[in-house]
Amino acid sequence: MGRNAVRTIAPALYLIPSLLGEIPVEQVLPQYNRDLIIGIRHFIVEDVRTARRFLKQVEGSIDIEQLTFYTLNKHTKPDELAGMLVPLEQGEPMGVISEAGCPAVADPGSDVVAIAQRKGLRVVPLVGPSSIILALMGSGFNGQSFAFNGYLPIEQEERIKALKKLEWKVYNEDQTQIFMETPYRNGKMIADILKACKPQTRLCIASGLTTPDEYIRTLTIKQWKEQIPELGKVPSIFLIYK
Amino acid sequence: MGRNAVRTIAPALYLIPSLLGEIPVEQVLPQYNRDLIIGIRHFIVEDVRTARRFLKQVEGSIDIEQLTFYTLNKHTKPDELAGMLVPLEQGEPMGVISEAGCPAVADPGSDVVAIAQRKGLRVVPLVGPSSIILALMGSGFNGQSFAFNGYLPIEQEERIKALKKLEWKVYNEDQTQIFMETPYRNGKMIADILKACKPQTRLCIASGLTTPDEYIRTLTIKQWKEQIPELGKVPSIFLIYK
After folding, report:
1. What is the pLDDT of residue A7?
2. What is the pTM of this model?
3. CATH 3.40.1010.10 boundaries in chain B
4. Residue of B110, B149, B166, B213 best to disrupt the A interface, most CBs of A under 10 A
5. Which end of chain B, N or C, is less packed with Cβ atoms under 10 Å?
């Protein structure tokens, strides 16, 4: 086999992490991921346009026209999902790519993985950037017990209630609580956390992870109140702990 | 600067993931990690011997004798911890390496990160294999809400109680529950899960992640009872969901 020849890849559903921002691929993805990706012709993706762009970043010589894309998002119907796996059932390796970070974690993808598991098909998760794990590592908070809670309610009263419930778990279950917000509501989220939580509770804000603007800072609620950060519209993760 | 010259690395506490098994470095670590590692001379590590071996795997030409190692494990006293960061405070980049996977996640390391955060020192988490995230990706379970619970109690009655409490959270909080066990107790753990959980609850067993023996399988408790797996002493992660 030639040095640049495409390897024959074992049939499996490969879960392929993508980038968290405009950064070089080799900063956050192992070389191995590229070697697998160039052997895959069927991709289940959240958005075809960004998936194509990602694949081109991974390997400029990929002939996108030779690839087949299946769109998986919140509009995809359950019966469409099962149909997507036909190539894999016929022995073709397939890939799942989400918009940012790890497929099936805080992102669509888990439904199609569940179907693959039900059908007894092999599933292979690949290593890549998870903003949740990176934020947890950088926070200094309890990494022996932690929970990711996705998005909190938007309505303020309900959100304050949700934050207080998470803070209760911090103190009563000794569990780090992680959550996120759509970037344009970062400011609102910080204001609500500062309002809901005790002064001595610690808040870690992890913003723009893996990018040149990466910002990971842990302070108490009391300290944050004296220096409220301006995150702008950068994707951010929030963590609280005692 | 020559091609192989060591770059000057910005002073920060770099959190450096290590391997989950005997596999090539480029399978699970980005090239970028190596480029940073060769610029670091001070390492906080769980075990000096395995850290040296890991560094040699990352880059064979590293001169281990030129490096300084600080041991961080459960025997390390809090006042020793703060002292470890002196080189960083003097402008030297430092690295934290744990025994397997991501430092400060289900592993020591978070204490020293917390001190760095308190002192306002920059913390930079690097991408690498997290068995928790890989297992979650491969499980097909809810990735919008999940909790990692570390090790469960060893004593059977308490463990069954803990498992029932986690299963309660699955159904009442719609949250994937993740936990682990020391490899030589895998069989006992599986027996206890099958005993504690409802027949319709789904259990994912993720074993030997990233290694050639990787095994990730999701079945209901009822199905597992008909085909109890023999994991041997391979590091495994367990996940339950509805």
Report:
1. 64
2. 0.95
3. 13-125
4. B110
5. N
